[in-house]
């Protein structure tokens, strides 16, 4: 039997013919892109301090060598991430800014100021727990500064 189009109705295109006709690629990025205002990422590393540092080193190295010429800012890093450790893990120290928190300025306020300033491509914090209000503050500050916020939880 041969296909005979019904007169008066346009023939229906197959899926691939329709894609070709519209210059679309099949199965291209079906996933929805993340919202533009979601600039806060979080990760948890658990285990021994040495193991956590081993996992963290390549992440920080990659961020310190980013093509973005702004700073990688570390807000109140744990004592185990000393200047010596940063040097030994071959991070680009010329692109890293270490900001310690103190009584007059807490880590959250310091992180928000660093994010809003826009001088950093990524601001890394080490909060063990972030409540909804803190998350909102970090997201809003990151959006204002066109920067990325990364919170790392180090656990045992």
Automatic annotation (TrEMBL):
This is Cell division protein. GO terms for biological process: cell division. NCBIfam families: SOS_SulA_aeru (NF041583). The keyword Glycoprotein does not apply. It comes from the Bacteria. Keywords: Cell cycle, Cell division, DNA damage, Septation, SOS response. Transmembrane segments: none annotated. The keyword Signal does not apply.
């Amino acid at each position: 039997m041969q296909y005979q189009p019904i007169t008066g109705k346009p023939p229906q295109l197959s899926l691939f013919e329709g894609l070709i006709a519209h210059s679309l690629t099949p199965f291209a990025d079906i996933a929805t892109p993340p919202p533009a205002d979601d600039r806060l990422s979080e990760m948890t590393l658990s285990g021994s301090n040495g193991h956590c540092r081993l996992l963290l080193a390549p992440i920080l190295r990659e961020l310190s060598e980013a093509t973005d010429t702004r700073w990688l800012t570390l807000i109140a890093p744990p004592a185990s991430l000393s200047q010596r450790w940063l040097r030994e893990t071959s991070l680009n120290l010329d692109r890293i800014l270490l900001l310690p928190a103190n009584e007059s300025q807490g880590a959250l306020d310091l992180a928000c100021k660093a994010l809003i300033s826009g001088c950093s491509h990524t601001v890394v914090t080490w909060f063990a727990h972030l409540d909804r209000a803190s998350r909102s503050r970090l997201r809003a500050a990151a959006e204002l500064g066109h920067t990325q916020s990364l919170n790392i939880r180090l656990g045992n």
